[in-house]
Amino acid sequence: MKLRKGRAAAALAVLAVILVSGVSCATRVVGGGSSEESSSEKSTVPQTTEAPTEEPTTEPVPEDKRVHVIAAGDNLIHYSVYKNAEKLAGPGENFDFKPLYKNVKYLIEDADVAILNQETIISQSNEIRGANGGALLFNSPPEVADAVIDLGFDVFTMANNHLLDFGSDALEESIRFWNQKAEENDLTVLGAYLNEEDANNIRVREVNGVKIAFLAYAEHINGFEFPAGCPLRVVMNYEEDVIERQIKEAKEKADVVIVSAHWGVEDTHLVSEDRIELANKMVNWGADVILGCHTHTAETMEWITRDDGTKGFVFYSMGNFICCQTDNFNLVGEMPDFDIVMDSETGEITLENVGAIPNIIHYESPDFANLGVYPYSKYTPELAAVHGVPYAIPQGSSTSFSWDILNDIINESMPAEFQKLDK
Predict the structure, then answer these.
(1) How many Å apart are CA 190 and CA 188, to the nearest integer?
(2) What domains does the chain contain, in order, with CATH numbers?
(3) What are phi and psi of 293, to 5 degrees?
(4) What is the DSSP string of 88-127?
(5) What are the angstrom distances between the C-alpha of 323 and each of 23, 81, 249, 415?
(6) Running DSSP on this structure, what letter comes out for residue 419?
(7) Distance separating alpha carbons of residues 269 and 328, to the nearest angstrom
(8) Counting beta carbons within 10 angstroms of the beta carbon of residue 107, is it exposed (0 to 12), middle (13 to 18) or buried (19 or more)?
(9) Tell me: the pLDDT tens digits for 313-328?
(10) What pTM value is reported for the model?
(11) What is the spatial order of strands in the sheet that 256-262 belongs to?
């Protein structure tokens, strides 16, 4: 049936309403709009979309700067030390000292800074001596330096009582030898200097973004004296005005000051009052760590509080790193082990994980065979039972040795809170 024009228009109008209603319903379901909104309004009114709110970004806090430090006491090259190295030498070699240190190599390599007190000079113009024949004179072959550099040490202190054992010319040769090694291997060498200007050139080494200054002083040089007009320089402990000036200058140039102090009475675990007094002065002048040596025995250690409430730490004596002495108390040393931490926001310096690893110098009879230095964690009751010190010549005054005696020496010389026995 054909619709009339009017009915057709009405039908179209009804259809339009139905269509609009359908669109409106669809809009309500999907968009959640009001039923009063029309499709035309939706198409003509521009829709505004708000930009998503960005979460405020926070800058990551930088990590604190950290430097792991390890140190060792007297590298004392006795006659029997270099004779062991002579037996270990391969074809075309004179000496090989490296195997003597192999058991502690992992500790030295793991450190960011490793410091060694080199107790003997190295002069190729003079005979090799290691207190043999009863004369307490020391001069070592250059292979010693090769071994301890290969071991991982990068800071060497030379201020000790044996500097003039072979005279000033031999000392100058040794200084120049170590200076050359420093240039070739990025080392820091100090404690004996070519002249006054060299002595006042504060050694600073930057490690992991932390600047560390190193200073070294000696108590005496075995009664020897520099000849008149000799420019060589060693700063002595009694020169407190120089020490104070240098520590304060070092504190201005660096974040941390480490002082090597060659001092004390040999063959005792007791710390003298004059050392305690000087240690307190050094810390108050700005020293952060003091590494004591010279006594050939391990000694106690402690925090020292400055007048402003901050603290420094002193190891009164590290004892021997290697030697062939014949008293049991000379055969246990300590290896200071600690972290320098710089706060990333304030720049404040603290010392953390401070302590010392006991090191044992082992040899067997006859002729100081199988010589080597061990950390406590690698030494055993079985090794202690065959130690050669009871049979060594010349005979010492304390020659018994066992696992229990070893532990007694450690406990007598090192406070339990600072003992690192498992490293």
Answers:
(1) 7
(2) 70-418 (3.60.21)
(3) -150, 180
(4) H--TT-S---GGGGGGGHHHHHH-SEEEEEE-SB--TTS-
(5) 99, 7, 35, 24
(6) B
(7) 12
(8) buried
(9) 999 999 999 999 999 9
(10) 0.86
(11) 203-207, 210-218, 256-262, 289-293, 311-315, 301-305
